[in-house]
Amino acid sequence: MTAQTASGWLVVCGALIVLAFAGFLVVWVQNRKFWDRAAIRSDSSGDPAGATISEQKNALQQASVRTKEANARLMDVVEHLPDGFALFDADDRLMISNSKWQDFYQYSDSDAAIGTSYDDLVRLDVERGIIAGDAEAGEEYLIGRYRYRHEKSGGFEVTLADGRSLVVRESDTSEGGRVGIHRDVSHRIRADVKLQEAYGIIKDQKDRMEEELNIGREIQMSMIPLGLPPFPEYNEIAISAALEPAREVGGDFYDFYFLDEERLCVCIGDVSGKGVPAALFMAMAKTLMKSRAYDDASTASIVTHVNDELSADNEKCMFVTIFAAIINIKSGEVLFTNAGHNPPYIKRRLGTLEALEQRHGPVVGVVDGMVYHEETERMAPGDVLVLFTDGVTEAMNSKSQLFSDQRYVKLLKQISDDTPEVIVANTLRAVKDFRGTAEQSDDITILAFEYIGTAATDTVAERQVIIKNELTDMLVADQKFEEFASAFDVPESVILKFKIIFDELLNNIISYAYSDDDVHDIEINMERVGHRLTVTVIDDGVPFNPLSESKPNTDLSLQDREVGGLGIHLVRNLVDDASYQRRIGKNVMTLVQNLD
Amino acid sequence: VSGLKISVRSVDEIKILDLVGSLDTQTFPLVEEELSDLIAGGARKILVNFGRLDYISSAGLRILLVAAKQLHRHGGEIQIFALNELVREVFDISGFATIFKVSGTEQDGLNSF
């Protein structure tokens, strides 16, 4: 109920009550005066006015009739009020009430006899359990009820045991009495409850949808390679990337993975639309790309196949722009296909910026049977390939201006530290600064790939040892590593350190990695580039990431220390960097130690 | 060249274990057996000489911990002296530096029981 209707309600009821009460009082008071006067007159003999007794009687009768008629009209009005009505005099004794009021509180006619005190009536309510709630609630009701009667402001809500809800509004009469209107508001309360229930349902639904979208976001984020920088064992490349969806889930993606030892596949895509439909289409596109890439050396062929697959049952006519590249990390050769994606840039080591403007076919997913093309480009050591989606260049500020290609070209030219991390971070920051307070309207994705190659000045040494999964072969690994390390000036302390590491890792692999009794190869690659010693240990055992094992508690006392669990902890802490990757069918542990 | 040579000396009631080589998956059973024999024979104070130990892996740490727990139950103790830089690092990483009494020299080791 609004304040306006509430005050209207009060005014109307108040006026009615005041009128009715005033009428009653006038009639009653006049009556008494009349009687008094009549008595005086009848007592005074020889009245000079000369009215006869019969005239006086007659007048009296007429007045009495008028009074009765007025009384009856008043009672009729009170009885027909839409609300319960009760009037108490200055001594808090009931004067007038209607049957609606009696009905609310289930008063019998004798309960509600004229002259009954307010206290008695209110106590009756509680004793008879007319008011909802237990005995204590009854006490509470009494306190509340009296307080309200004392404060005489606002309204007092009463919930009856039969389920009805009343709002009681009382006001003072000019005689010091109290008049109360008791309105049944059950329907309104019910409507409120229903509204609350409906709101609850809507909120539950909203919470569930939000939760599902958040899970969707987690799943989507788990689909793209995070945990950068990737491939620490490859010194020839560096990659950094970021994806910021505009909503919980989005239609952008990037991906990169090695197809073999030398060829890295890198791609970026942007699905039309946003939200869940785009996210599902993105998941399909990304998965199809990857599954095709492993068997297909041509980006044109990969995209052509993926286009056929996506176009086949695409009733919603969604589409995706894709830039796919296969990069040879030994030669720097880049084979690429651009299917409707915005042109990437190559930032050359010497500072020039080139856009890869070539297009090799339309967006993917619309017309099947399209044949896409491809071409090659060469990256020199120090060159950086920058892939991005239009969420970067079409980011909009509050004045509806676009970040634009021009602005991005300028930014890329300005960046002096060309590492992928810096390029990605600067791009995100620039776009965010430009956007200001405006809402992010599209997914933002950026991937920077640096071809480092092998610098000619570095001492490069590498050697591979393959041992069998037998404990005695661990000595062979030690011996070969020592030979390699001594030949390439690795300090004695580092050699001993790696003997500990081999003891931990190889023992672990040989003892626990295989679920069969077959003979397996364990591959150990050693490489020294400049001051960097990199050792990879590769086994084809069951998938196991030793680095995911929890750290043992090394603070416990002798009695509480567990025997065991220290091996991986040592490995992790003895070298400068230890990392794990699961490659197809293989566990790859990479250990890096800087030799100062 | 991998491998480990062990010899045992006595100074009063203290047994001194001299280790030469490396203590790892290949060699730990030798030390484990030696320690277990000493404890079974009633030795309660054992001092291990790491002066000529090249390195120790978790397999070696494990048997030291087992022996220390055994001796502790009998009111005895195992101590170590003369750690090289790498072994010291391993002791620090593994928290063994706080649960074993480590001395610089043999004499300090003998005095600290």
Task: Give the arrangement of secondary structure elements.
The complex is a heterodimer of chains A (596) and B (113).
Chain A lengths: L2 H41 L9 H27 L4 E5 L5 E4 L1 H7 L12 H10 L7 H17 L4 E4 L5 E8 L5 E7 L1 H38 L13 E8 L7 E7 L4 E9 L3 H19 L5 H14 L7 E9 L4 E7 L5 E3 L5 E3 L19 E4 L4 E6 L1 H4 L11 H10 L5 H16 L8 E8 L8 E9 L5 H14 L4 H21 L8 E9 L2 E8 L27 H8 L2 E7 L2 E9 L2
Antiparallel strand pairs in A: 1-2, 1-5, 3-4, 4-5, 6-15, 7-8, 8-9, 9-10, 10-13, 11-12, 11-14, 14-15, 16-17, 17-18, 18-20, 19-20
Chain B lengths: L3 E8 L2 E10 L4 H13 L4 E12 L1 H16 L3 E5 L3 H10 L1 H4 L1 E3 L2 H6 L2
Parallel strand pairs in B: 2-3, 3-4, 4-5
Antiparallel strand pairs in B: 1-2
Helix pairs in contact in B: 1-2
Description of the structure:
The complex is a heterodimer of chains A (596) and B (113). With 596 residues, chain A is of the alpha+beta class. Chain A is 41% helix and 22% strand. Chain A contains 14 helices and 20 strands. Chain A has a five-stranded antiparallel sheet with strand order 2-1-5-4-3, with helices on both faces. In chain A, strand 17 and strand 18 (532-539) form a beta hairpin. In chain A, helix 4 packs antiparallel against helix 5 (135-151), helix 12 packs antiparallel against helix 13 and helix 13 (492-512) packs antiparallel against helix 14. The radius of gyration of chain A is 46 Å and the shape is elongated. Chain A starts with a helix and ends with a strand. The model of chain A is unreliable at 1-6 and 31-46 (pLDDT under 50). Chain B has five helices and five strands, in the order E-E-H-E-H-E-H-H-E-H. Chain B is α/β, with parallel strands linked by helices. Chain B has a five-stranded mixed sheet with strand order 1-2-3-4-5. In chain B, helix 2 (58-73) links the parallel strand 3 (45-56) and strand 4 (77-81). Chain A binds chain B through residues 471, 474-475, 478, 493, 496-497, 499-500, 503-504, 507, 554-559, 561, 563-564, 566-567, 569-570, 573-574, and chain B through 2, 22, 24-26, 54-59, 61-62, 65-66, 68-69, 72, 85-86, 89-90, 93-95, 98-99.
